Amino acid sequence: MILIASGTSPDRAIALEHLLSAAAATLGWTDRLEIRLGGIDSGAGRISDAGLAALHSVGIDAASAVCPDLSRRPTLLEGADFVVCDRGDVADALVDWDEAGEAEFVVVSEIDPEPDGDDRPIGDDVRHYEGAIEEVLRRVVAARADHDLG
């Protein structure tokens, strides 16, 4: 199971979740990957109109999408094999939670550093994530294959 987590905005987590799900579907991995979503601090909540429009621009319908609050629903983290975080500080916070167990963390901003900080438009984030999502999926699949073989 993969948990997508953000501490910046629900739009970011929802964008990552939808892009990762779409990439997994393209590669035929939909049945092999369970993807959950969760936010901490300002990363939890409903998708904004801007986030909805940004995802719609790349062919993804995220109407009524919600990123649950992990502080209220920490069980979403339980059993995660991988936690995909938008930023390193989110991974740093979650790695210490008991619910994280032995999860491996993948940090998108470390794969492809983010330009211009956290206050850029969500449309820029979506374009940025599109460029990194294939590598995120590759890392998850490779680590999963290593676990299955080991």
- The H-and-E topology, N to C, reads as EHEEHEEHEHH
Binned strand content: 5-15%
Walk across the major sheet and give the strand order.
2-1-5-6
Distance between the termini: 18 Å
**Global structural class:** alpha/beta
pLDDT average, as an integer?
86
Structure summary, number of beta strands? 6
Helical stretch count?
A: 5
Helical percent range? 40-55%
Instruction: Give a short account of the largest sheet.
Output: 4 strands, parallel
The coarse overall form would be: globular
Description:
The chain is of the alpha/beta class and 150 residues long. The chain is 43% helix and 15% strand. The protein is built from five helices and six strands. The strands form two sheets. The chain has a four-stranded parallel sheet with strand order 2-1-5-6. A two-stranded antiparallel ribbon has the order 3-4. Strand 5 (82-85), helix 3 (88-94) and strand 6 (104-107) form a beta-alpha-beta unit. Helix 1 runs parallel beside helix 2 and helix 2 packs across helix 5 (122-149). The longest helix has 28 residues, at 122-149. It starts with a strand and ends with a helix.
Notable traits:
150 residues; alpha/beta; four-stranded parallel sheet; two-stranded antiparallel sheet; 5 helices; 15% strand; globular
